[in-house]
Amino acid sequence: MKGQCPCDPEPVFELADGSLAPEREREIRAHLRGCSGCQTLYERELRLNASLGSLEFEEANSVCRGVAMALPTRSTKARLLWAALAVVLLLTASVAMMLYGTNLAVLVIDAMNVFWGFVAGFADVIQVIFAAIGQALLVALAIGAFVDLVIAAVYLAVSRRRAIEA
Ligand SMILES: [Zn+2]
């Protein structure tokens, strides 16, 4: 479903871009006066063009900063979440390497076993694949649960702080 009116939006976009021939432009402008759907689309497109225009070149940085300042709570929360996620992933990776280091090596050997097992026999392949998948699943579940916990904790901390500020 597009817009409120069944018209082709393409001429409206071209009118907003100023890329229509004068005669066609008069036509479309006349249509806009009688069609609120196209009129709304035209105004929205003009605003979009204006904001896109202000994003260009050396102004991009200041506009981005302006947008970030306009959404302080949201961007802080997002930044906190991303920072926490990055730290957690880093920690989890190092812990996993320490705790599961040998298992990871086993996984690699298992993967090679899968290849050789393919040559050796079908039953062996199934056995090795299941063993490898089981270990990978355990690691993935542990990491997933830990990440969920930390995200929940960060979210709680942030919403509590926002409640105090409000
Ligand atoms: Zn229309």
Automatic annotation (TrEMBL):
Domain Putative zinc-finger: 15-39
Keyword field contains Transport: no
Keywords: Membrane, Transmembrane, Transmembrane helix
A Pfam family of this chain: zf-HC2
Top-level taxonomic group: Bacteria
Membrane-spanning segments: 80-102, 114-133, 139-158
Gene3D superfamilies (UniProt xref): Anti-sigma factor, zinc-finger domain (1.10.10.1320)
Protein name: Putative zinc-finger domain-containing protein
